[in-house]
Amino acid sequence: MAFVWFVLILLCVLMYVVLDGYDLGIGIATLFERDARRRHEMLELVAVAWDGNETWLVLAGVALWAGFPLAFGTILPHAFLPLIVMLFALIVRGVSVEMVSQRPSAPGWEKAFGIGSLIAALAQGVVASTLAAHLTIIGGAYDGSAFGEMSWYSVLTALAVAASYLALGYAYTKWKATGELRAEAGRRGAPAAAAAMVLGAACLGAVNATAAPLNLAAPVRAGGFAYLMAVAVAGAAVAWVTLPPASRYDACPCAGWRSRWWRPSSLWSWPATRCSSLPGSRSTTRPRPAARSISSPSGSG
């Protein structure tokens, strides 16, 4: 039964990272976008589904509490501070989206959306670093400082998570947007993906210097680790090929392209696995859902 709970938690975390990761990444990207029209269009990309994506985070927390109550009671107190910061940042993001949808021009709330996204991404990286931190447990309960999770490794993982989300955000923007915004996402997405690769490799290389070094003595662990590394390398290579604006496969950034010989199906490649066939497809983009709209900065709606 513990294995089932573990798989459920892993699935929830994976779905959250993929689905809400691009959401947070677009928010971070708005901080680097000076053009008000393009920045507003980026907000429209996440206005429809941002709240639904965060449901996976809630489900992961409930599954951890139900499946591993001891871990829930010992690990989470070690990460309470970054978790609280993350939750407040997510609240600010939600309020910002609603405020922008109610006002013709709200540059302050647009900036709050970007800052909230960045803080939430950094906080999630700090929380992830607790998996490699030393925990002091007395009587089955965590006994340590609320700032015990802060270390050089937590800073490194925070930067890696933020860079990865930024790359996902640019990939999703390039897939869904058109015109200048799409080209700009391609130009900025490649450096973001490169930064995510470098920081991710640095986290992996530095984990042996933490309290939880890699243990690959068992063949199953070594095989699983090798598989994950192969998937990561393949994803990095595909992202590097598809993100640049001049790429012939640029309609499917970070996921590859469909053909009669190969079709991507892994969860990590969502949201771009539904792209049109390349080359020679009828359209390289899909129309955005019209269920919800944010007023333009000029007030024309």
Describe, in plain words, how this protein is organized in 3D.
The protein has 301 residues and is an all-alpha fold. The protein has one domain. Helix content is 63%, strand content 1%. Strands 1-2 form a two-stranded antiparallel sheet. The longest helix is centred in the first third of the chain and has 29 residues. The chain is globular.
Beta strands, count: 2
Main sheet makeup: 2 strands, antiparallel
Mean pLDDT: 75
Order of helices and strands: HHHHHHHEEHHH
| Number of structural units classed as domains | 1
Total of DSSP H or I helical runs spanning 4+ residues? 10
Instruction: Determine Rg (CA atoms, Å).
Output: 20 Å
Give structural attributes.
1% strand, globular, 2 strands, mainly alpha, two-stranded antiparallel sheet, 301 residues
SSE topology:
Layout: H1 2-30, H2 36-46, H3 50-53, H4 55-67, H5 69-78, H6 80-102, H7 107-129, E1 137-138, E2 141-142, H8 152-176, H9 179-206, H10 219-242
Antiparallel strand pairs: 1-2
